From TrEMBL:
It holds the Pfam family Glycos_transf_2. PANTHER family: RFBJ PROTEIN (PTHR48090:SF7), UNDECAPRENYL-PHOSPHATE 4-DEOXY-4-FORMAMIDO-L-ARABINOSE TRANSFERASE-RELATED (PTHR48090). Residues 6-116 form the Glycosyltransferase 2-like domain. This is Glycosyltransferase family 2 protein. It comes from Pendulispora albinea. InterPro entries: Glyco_trans_2-like (IPR001173), Glycosyltransferase_2 (IPR050256), Nucleotide-diphossugar_trans (IPR029044).
Length: 244
């Protein structure tokens, strides 16, 4: 099947979310041929994700989806997405999450914005999360201010989903980090290389099942703030960091 767009979804212990996730993408396909592929990255899961993937993708009408497996143990969010990107066949690439907080249709909206831009090869599209709890919105603003102070760039809603771009950006982003800094890294590479930024509002709801793998309490958020600051400092100084 020829595809022009590849959608990467990293899945780490998301067994409970997988059936509905695939079902929502199936609804977008509407039983007909599509010019996009869904790459589900089983990112070192230790739950029953593998069996659920096998069962769900065996159902008729789901040839648009395939699984790329990263063996356990989980190396990191960035490693999982990068593995999916490297396996992608599309000219246009994007990623979103498996937790159901943003609808899959937003990815197709991102691709529409990308392909309608003046220069799709040098455009970076991302969602801007709305309807979030105040504490989470403040956390995002803090990360934006920190990025501005350390990197000298305005990186609005760094972790906003989905993200979409031409394969050109993947070639420029040659040193992706293994961890949650991947969103920041691709945003930074796009800005440093003068890409046009296009954003659109997305409704950001609650997780359908389970809990966040990194923001489940303030202690986990504090750890990730420290990690992000360390990564930003590495980008600014050119020092090394764990790479996918």
């Amino acid at each position: 099947m020829s595809v022009s767009q590849s959608i990467i979804v990293p899945c780490y212990n998301e067994g409970a979310n997988i059936p509905n996730l695939i079902g929502r993408f199936e609804a977008l396909a509407n039983g007909g041929p599509v010019d996009w592929e869904l790459i589900l990255v089983n990112n070192g899961s230790v739950d029953d994700s593998a069996a659920i993937f096998e069962r769900e993708l065996a159902k008729p009408g789901r040839s648009f989806a395939r699984v790329v497996t990263v063996p356990s143990p989980n190396v990191g969010y960035g490693h999982g997405i990068t593995t999916g990107l490297r396996a992608a066949r599309g000219e246009y690439l994007g990623w979103t999450h498996a937790d159901g907080q943003t609808p899959p249709s937003d990815v197709l909206r991102a691709f529409e914005l990308l392909r309608s831009s003046a220069d799709p090869k040098r455009t970076f599209v991302k969602g801007r999360r709305r309807n979030r709890p105040v504490k989470d919105a403040l956390f995002t603003l803090g990360m934006q201010a920190t990025a501005g102070a350390i990197l000298g760039l305005n990186l609005d809603d760094i972790n906003g989903q989905p993200k979409a771009f031409h394969r050109t950006l993947l070639e420029l982003a040659s040193s992706p980090p293994v961890d949650l800094s991947l969103d920041l890294y691709f945003f930074w590479v796009a800005k440093k290389n003068g890409f046009e930024l296009r954003t659109f509002d997305v409704h950001f709801g609650d997780r359908e099942h389970g809990e966040s793998k990194w923001a489940f309490n303030w202690r986990s958020k504090a750890r990730n703030i420290a990690r992000s600051v360390k990564f930003m400092s590495a980008l600014r100084s050119g020092t090394d960091y764990p790479r996918a």
